[in-house]
Each structure stands twice: as C-alpha cells, then as structure tokens.
Amino acid sequence: MFLKIESSVLVQLLAYFTRPTARRFISVGFVILLMGCGSKDRNVSPPPPQVGGDQNLPAVMQTARLAEELGIEIGQTSEKGIRGNFAGLRTDEVMFSRRLDSRSYFAYDRRFTVSHGLYQGPDEKVASEARTVLAKLSVPSGELGSAKVIEEAGQTGHLDPGTRKLSLGKVTRGKRYVMFTRQVEGMPVFSSRAIIGFTSEGRLGFLNVHWPVISEADLKETRELRERVRRGWKAPVVSGARVESVEAGIVHSPSAATVMDIHPVIRVIYTNKDRRLGLRPVRFFNGDGVSIRPPRIFTEALPEKAATSRPKPGSQPKKLP
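^ that's the sequence the OP posted. Answer follows.
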C-alpha cells in the first residue's frame, strides 16, 4: 500500500537534507559521522555483507565502486576519505558515504529539486526502483516491511496588507520518497529505515539506508521475547498511563552513532490517561520487565556542562592555580 502525505514531520526532516545547505550532508560525515569507533559489547552489529566490487581494494575505492553500481555519477571527486567507521566522497553535484561497520548508506544529489523536474511514473514504479537499489546494497528482500511513497506538497500565499486576508495559491506537487520499514522473521526492527528518492532522470537523488545485520544470538533472544508476549507477558505499570500495545522486536543505535549497539526488547507503548497530554510514553523492557536503556549513540559520555551560575554580589572570583 502506498500513501501520499501533503505534510508530515518526516517530510520536514527530509526537507532539511534537501535544502541547498545539504551540500554539507556528506561533509558532515567527514566531520561527525566519520568520527566513529567500534564497540566490544555482545550487542554489536556483525560485519555487513561485502558490497562494492573487489574487497581487496581500499575502503574509499570500494565506496567509489559501489557508487558507480548505484548509478551515482562520481566523476572527479573534490573530497574523499575515511574517518573512524565511515568512508565517503563528494563531487560538485553528488555526495555519497557509507559506514564500514554497518549496512548504512547515505547519498544526496543537488539536482534533486523541483526546479530540475520531478521523477515521473506511478508510485508502484518508484517503489520498484527503490527495491532495486536496496538489492544492490545487499538488503534482503524478505526483510522489507511496509513501503510508503511520501510526496511533498507546496503552496504559496499572499497576505493583503489592507484587509489582512490570506489568499492561497494552488497546491503544487513536490519530491517523492519511498520509505521502507523492516521486519526479520515477522519481528519488527524498530530502528531500521530506508528512505529513497529519485531525480527526474531516474538517478538516486536521496538515499538514507540504515539496516544493520542482526546476529543469530539476537534473533534467538527476540524469538524468546515474542513467545513471552504471546503467553501474556504483563507490561509494567506507568503512572498516569495505560498500555496501548506490546510487541517484541529489536532496537539499535542510529545511523549517525559512533557505535552500533543492538538490543532485543519488548516495546510497550502507553496512552496517557489525561487526553490533554499528546505524547505517548514508549518504553523498552527485557523479558523480566526490567527497563532497558536506549542503544548508545557515543562510546564515551559527553563532557559535563560547565557551571553557569553567576557569583554572588561582593564575592571574589576564584584564582586560577
């Protein structure tokens, strides 16, 4: 089933990466995303399947080969390199990077704009092209969950300064993205996503795929949690809320993290009893009902905030040693 949405939080987030400033998208990979390091925890994603041609080549050359396989015109690169667990390259028109420790890929073509034209064809064709891209990235077709085609929409308005009346123009069609969710053996992987968009020529215009490999040990534990849920596992009580849904699945670190933790969990979504509260509490638990902390983003804790309180009137500032 395909869904067209004129306005959504997702589209607003995607719009951030498709603004002219998004030329820094892969540059961010060289500044932040590429500054990763490994983790020795059990819940670390296994190495991703090898893609990008000859694996004896250096990682940057493998990345360039993969870009070519995806139909990305890399031409003469103006910037390329490896930092931490990321490899990437950038040209005047396109940017492409990938994680070396996870099945995670990112691309943006600056020609992916309404002014350059929109990709034509029915939603089914767009979704089919997106599945072809995922196959080239070694994403198993059996793990693809729901597929939604999301379409941006734009509208102009004119405010009459005299009457203060707002006149709205016609709604215009914008860029389309295909978004896939993930399931393994029918069990959801809550943190995995694939979002893909195409230029008017059918080239990759936007790519954000985060699909870590799940180990057999984690799959086994998730199956056990699913069986507990089937047998009537009781969710812990949360004050001021009631249980809306209970489901066993997997969560993992986000794509921009410098570590890749993977946790089998039971996800519980609660509904606030007070309808004035819009947010729904979401909690992750193990089979014993103990709360599980979200997967890490960084391997080390961020430095503590420096004291910002002002000195009392008349007090003397401390002397530095």
